[in-house]
Design brief:
Helices cover about 30% and strands about 20% of the residues.
Length: about 725
Amino acid sequence: MKRLIIAEKPDMARAFASYLFSDNYTKGNGCLISGDTTITWAFGHMLKNAMPGDYGDAFKSWSAYPIFPTEWLMKVDANCVKQFKVIQELLQSADEVIHGGDPDREGQLLIDEILTYCDYKGPIKRVLANAKDTDSLARAFNNLEDNKKYYNLYQSGLCRSQADWLIGMNLTRLYTHRSKSFGHRESFRVGRVKTPTLALIVQREHEIKNFTSIKHYSLQGTFEQNHLTFTAKHVLSETLKQSCDANGHLTDRALLDGLLLKLQDQPAFVKSVNYSEGVTEPPLPHSLDTLQVEANSVYGYSPKQVLELTQSLYEKAYVSYPRSDCNYIPASQHDDANKILGTIRNSIELPSIDSLLDSSQQSKAFNDKKITAHHAIIPTSVLPKSLTAEEQNIYELIALRYLIQFMPPEKWNKVEYTIGIADEEFKGSGKEIVSPGFKIVLAKTKQQDEDETNPEATNTILPSLNEGDTPKVSKISVNEAKTKPPKRFTEGTLIKAMANIYQFIPKDEPLREKLKELKGIGTPATRDTIIAELLSTNSNGNPCLPLVSKKGKELLPTAWGEQYIKIMDEEITTPLSTAIMESYLAKVESGEYSLNEYINILKEMISSIIKKVESQTFPFPTDYVEGELIPCPICKEGQLLKKKAKNENRFFYVCSDPNCHHPVTLKKVFYKDSPKGPVIHLCDSCKVVTTACKGPYGDYYHCPSCHANYSAEGNKKKPTNK
């Protein structure tokens, strides 16, 4: 029986061959052969959705929309033709195929679409290889599954592909075509995920610009007992709460100044005290998004850079599959712990942790119920060699998150207390670390305790208090603070926002909790690309204005980005709509929805948007268009736009206002182009725009009001005798 294995990329094909054939194989044309088994490979997505013009000449024009293919056309990528023919020929003689795409939605799609395109009808098995080391490959090939099990995952990938095409092609054409008649020169690059991501950045900028800092006040008491000083914060009475603003801030200092007089020289007593012990469990291993967030925070690496570095480590067999949205590990892989931990200890400088490390320990990270098509990014047992400084940094972040799963939690003691003075209450707390546990190895990763951000947790040494104690009142003071605006997104925090998009959906929205279960908008593999596109000054080889700019690490919308979101329909920009589309994709993956049901919903949405935008007027861009704007000499309100003549290699100018017409002829006026811009000629007498004409003796201008004629140079001619 001839068996054909199709890997997603050449490096994975070589890894398969090294494991299956022990490097004992021959190299064929685009394949590796040993006995009746042949391994070949794709180059990622070898098939692309056809362009609109491929569906007929009528769709070559950008004014042609909507485009709703009844039968989707696929084309082989021009760079992949040779290798695609190899796969086609091998499939013709294959008795069985093993699908070796990466263990995610896109990996499932790109091999399945090849098999569908080539009309392969034979049996198909699925191998899910999460890493390239021997243990992982052995586990993968020992657990082959019927590819039919992943049909819905394939359909979900197909939905995503078709949805991105339908939204991108139709709405990009719609907004670009409509906007240009109102003076916009930029193309509207609309994307299912890109557009709402830009909207997050724009909305955040508006919040910052519209923010007004407000002073607010609180009381803090400083107390002493047994030569130990501790603090507590005043608890507002119900009366004072009524004087607070909507955010619960007390803005009238006079109210607290009056309270100070009341509390002056009054004794304090402990109303209640509660001692507790607790632990902080280690954070879970990394998914791609959490790795990108941490690497951006610690090292300033961009999401794209993190993915590239992690991909490099994966290709060298040092870590598992990088494009993962999962933070859990299969329980079956706990047996690999000894080998992996040994590799980590030989790869990273660590403090003395022999007494803390326990390879038999099984943290909550080992949970089969939480596993998707892939697991968390973890190190393999292969010892890294010759890493760049950047690769080493990423490897350490991944390795430490795995290592701490076998270390004890941080242990702490905590006290919470209420101090009474007169009829007022002050509350405070203190936390004392008993044992740092896993945190001993996380110093460089800037891990932060939740309690460290708690303003009440100001005491690191626990005061020894008992109910009824009368600590000394050292000081009661009024603290002044100012409200702060929200922070701009960085690439790291934007990745986090995209992965947790439910946080930007109103709390009273019924779907919010349901959407919380999703993995956000976009995928771990595409979010870095989305951000890069927003920053890009190039689109398909053509220069374009960026939608987002960077100020240090901060992301800011450009004037063009602001205008873009202002014009866009809310149905495209709101996180809720996009998250709902993602939820539909999840339903296709689970089998609750079919591909056709999803696409029909999308078509209805696109048709609705087209209807609205067709009747929409666009504000003229005055704040982002490059070059000098030329006012219309007729209506004085529109701007002269440069356009290319159909079927001719020449340009002309026309008013941006579609309702602007010549006051005499009532016709649209077109102005000739010149190196200095539009040629505008007014009649000396009437002061109206003259009409460019061609005569037997050359070009001239004619006044439609007084019928005077002017030479091509603009000089008035003598009237012709009739």
